[in-house]
């Protein structure tokens, strides 16, 4: 495929005169596995809903070169989605599975196999209305249906929130088997999905404040120079960056230091707590001679 799988240009979304997304420009390649992070209200779910064609919006979203809207449902057959809050469907589980196989091209045998790996006994639930399942059962079934579809892009919004520890581990193992697909995973547990992703996008107040591509080949010994600026001085963030051996300029709002490849996800997870303070962050890959000169 030529060009990005998803092209988002000047995306804006407003609810009752309240701006939620502010002129976002993002490209998603078919090889991207993205951790979408940010505090509650940052705009993550709204961005996902726009991607799925659920909301009208300003700006353009192209999926494989075709415009996404609230009308072109056929295009969205390429996307498999698991929401944070399961829909209040009253249809029996057996009807939901049948509908998913017919309209979403899910593989029925794969649904059963994935459900079994997640610890969900589907045979006992077929006659039960979906809305009467427990939160964990709903989540497991939706995950099984999504992963059984031949989608080009998987979108998960806090997918493990209702899963027990064993099911969460099985879910992460299943995702690891689908690294040939593009993924967007909105999660508060960045360290949990660290091994799955190669890109981190952080949102805050409807804007993207961090977009970092993490090479699949980034080795434990590799180091990257990080330069970041904050909107205003912060004692807590200064202390955190000091613990990472970052130096601070005289204004108290600019820092630089080195981050090892093996620590990159942990570092980004730490920064995500201070998303509202970040105004700019940049990473640069360094050779051994550059590391020595910057350390000096």
Topology of this protein?
Layout: E1 6-15, E2 18-28, E3 33-37, H1 44-51, E4 58-63, E5 66-67, E6 79-82, H2 93-103, H3 108-117, H4 135-147, E7 153-157, H5 165-176, E8 182-186, E9 199-204, E10 207-213, E11 223-230, H6 235-243, E12 247-248, E13 254-260, H7 264-271, E14 278-285, H8 288-295
Parallel strand pairs: 3-8, 3-9, 6-7, 7-8
Antiparallel strand pairs: 1-2, 1-4, 4-5, 9-10, 11-13, 11-14, 12-13
Walk me through what this model shows.
- This protein has 296 residues and is an alpha/beta fold.
- It has two domains: 199 residues, P-loop containing nucleotide triphosphate hydrolases (Rossmann fold, 3-Layer(aba) Sandwich); 77 residues, Alpha-Beta Plaits, CATH 3.30.70.
- Helices cover 27% and strands 29% of the residues.
- The longest helix is centred in the middle third of the chain and has 13 residues.
Kindly state the percentage of residues in helix.
25-40%
By CATH reckoning, the class of the largest domain would read Alpha Beta
| Rg of Cα set | 21 Å
Number of strands: 14
**Count of DSSP H/I helices:** 8
Q: What is the level-2 CATH architecture name of the largest domain?
A: 3-Layer(aba) Sandwich
Fourth-level CATH superfamily of the largest domain: P-loop containing nucleotide triphosphate hydrolases
Alpha-beta content class = alpha/beta
Question: What string gives the helices and strands in order?
Answer: EEEHEEEHHHEHEEEEHEEHEH
Biggest pleated-sheet summary: 6 strands, mixed
CATH third-level topology of the largest domain: Rossmann fold
């Amino acid at each position: 495929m030529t060009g990005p799988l998803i092209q988002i240009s000047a995306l804006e979304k407003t609810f009752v005169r309240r701006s939620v997304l502010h002129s976002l420009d993002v490209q998603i390649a078919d090889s991207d596995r993205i951790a979408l992070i940010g505090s509650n209200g940052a705009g993550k779910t709204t961005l996902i809903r726009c991607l799925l064609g659920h909301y009208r919006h300003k700006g353009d979203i192209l999926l494989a070169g075709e415009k996404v809207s609230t009308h072109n449902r056929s295009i969205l057959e390429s996307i498999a989605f698991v929401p944070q809050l399961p829909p209040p469907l009253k249809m029996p589980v057996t009807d939901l599975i049948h509908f998913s196989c017919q309209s979403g091209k899910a593989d029925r045998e794969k649904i059963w196999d994935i459900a079994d790996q997640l610890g969900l006994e589907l045979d006992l639930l077929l006659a039960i209305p979906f809305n009467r399942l427990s939160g964990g059962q709903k989540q497991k079934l939706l995950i099984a249906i999504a992963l059984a579809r031949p989608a080009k892009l998987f979108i998960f919004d806090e997918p493990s929130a209702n899963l027990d520890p064993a099911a969460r581990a099985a879910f992460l193992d299943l995702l690891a088997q689908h690294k040939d697909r593009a993924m967007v995973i909105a999660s508060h547990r960045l360290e949990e999905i660290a091994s799955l992703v190669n890109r981190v996008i952080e949102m805050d107040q409807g804007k993207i404040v961090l977009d970092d591509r993490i090479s699949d080949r980034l080795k434990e010994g590799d180091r990257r120079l990080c330069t970041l600026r904050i909107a205003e001085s912060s004692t807590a963030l200064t202390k955190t960056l000091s613990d990472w051996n970052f130096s601070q300029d005289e204004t108290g709002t600019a820092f630089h230091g080195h981050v090892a490849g093996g620590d990159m996800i942990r570092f980004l997870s730490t920064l995500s707590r201070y998303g509202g303070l970040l105004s700019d962050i940049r990473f640069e890959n360094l050779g051994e001679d550059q590391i020595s000169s910057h350390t000096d």
